[in-house]
């Protein structure tokens, strides 16, 4: 689909909100009209359901019963269930642009989305936007609803945060940028309280961030930050990485999915005042236990010392790619 808006329209068609047992049709037309009519009978005086029609309760049961052919799969999202049930009880709410007013959580996963387009602004009540496993390389903050509290962009191709931070949603509490292509040190300047005053959770895992000192100096301005994920970055290979973060960010509760307890905080107390312990170099030792597919050197040891037979030597080049 290319854009978030196009993917959402495709998603709506997949849900079949205008098809039985949802929407408005011969299966519920008079029932819904009676409910809307000002002359409808008082509660308790239910009229008989016309032949060929079903009550809203019966239609809902077709959606909820797992043995029904119209039931959603067990692993579907709450968003799917909500829209289907609204399409039964009040289908007029999902007609035209009205559908954008109903959606508070939008999940579009692995749909080939490349652009967060301006059409996303139609979701005026949107609080959660999850666009994981797509092909998004840039996010324009002006296209994000100001009501947004959760933005998840895991497994995309985001390289730079400048466009995202130009005018970010002020109420955002979680920002997920794991498994992208961020590399320092130019990105750290976008991770301060000036851009994210209410951020509680930040996922930067499995990028290419290297400047631990620079990153910590910016993250320390985020007074509400409680959850941080940095594993998978080169800076996480520093021996004092966890201890330095724990001591530098005293309000942090969870680092790399591991709870920070009082004992650990006491153990690393004072480490933040010793930045010289952070080395910018690392050493890797590679041990080779077995090699296959090479000639056996024992076969060449059969030549006697002083033999005039031909001497054959072999040399090999081993390359490691990181």
TrEMBL record:
Keywords from the UniProt entry: Leucine-rich repeat, Repeat
Record-level GO cellular component terms: cytoplasm
PROSITE patterns: LRR (PS51450)
Membrane-traversing stretches: none
Name of this protein: LRC43 protein
Organism name: Struthidea cinerea
The gene coding this protein: Lrrc43
